[in-house]
Structures are given as structure tokens and as C-alpha cells.
């Protein structure tokens, strides 16, 4: 598995990946759609969001969203 965006989040990512892979292969593929890893995912998500903010990646994302390049691509695709 790959590493997380921040060293502090690696253990949570590893724990979530293991939980998800086990749930997916042992439950979901057999028809059980009840999620089992929500708490671990929430903790991992909070860690990632904190890392994004501390590394100031959130500002880069906000600037990229202002440019909205995907709207231009979607508009040109609709004309085809």
C-alpha cells in the first residue's frame, strides 16, 4: 500500500486499508453492504484534512477550484 500524505497518518491509513480490504473481500463481495470501517475512515480523514491544512495545500486547492478548468472541458464536450 502507498503512504499517506503525512507521516502522522500512515498508521491510520494502514489500519483503514486493512479493514476495508477485509470487509470488501469477505463481506461486500458476498452481498453484505453494511459498512464496518467508518470510524477508522473518519479518523484517517481528519488526519489527512489536518495535514492538508498544515501543509497549506488547502490554499492551492481553493485556487485551483477558482480556475474551474473542468467546467471548460465539460462545456466543450457537450458541443460535440
TrEMBL record:
PANTHER family referenced in this protein's UniProt entry, alphabetically: TP53-REGULATED INHIBITOR OF APOPTOSIS 1 (PTHR46403:SF1)
Name this polypeptide is given: 7279_t:CDS:1
Upper lineage: Eukaryota, Fungi, Fungi incertae sedis, Mucoromycota, Glomeromycotina
Similarity annotation: Belongs to the TRIAP1/MDM35 family.
A molecular function (GO) term: phosphatidic acid transfer activity
GO-annotated cellular components: cytosol; mitochondrial intermembrane space; nucleus
Keyword annotations from UniProtKB, A to Z: Disulfide bond
Keyword Disulfide bond: yes
Keyword Cell inner membrane (UniProt): no
A Pfam family it matches: UPF0203
Any one GO biological process: phospholipid translocation
Amino acid at each position: 500500500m502507498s503512504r499517506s500524505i503525512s507521516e502522522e497518518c500512515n498508521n491510520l491509513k494502514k489500519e483503514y486499508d486493512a479493514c476495508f480490504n477485509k470487509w470488501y473481500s469477505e463481506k461486500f463481495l458476498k452481498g453484505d453492504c453494511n459498512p464496518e470501517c467508518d470510524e477508522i475512515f473518519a479518523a484517517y480523514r481528519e488526519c489527512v484534512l489536518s495535514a492538508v491544512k498544515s501543509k497549506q495545500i488547502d490554499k492551492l486547492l481553493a485556487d485551483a477550484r477558482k480556475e474551474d478548468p473542468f467546467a471548460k472541458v465539460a462545456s466543450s464536450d457537450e458541443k460535440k
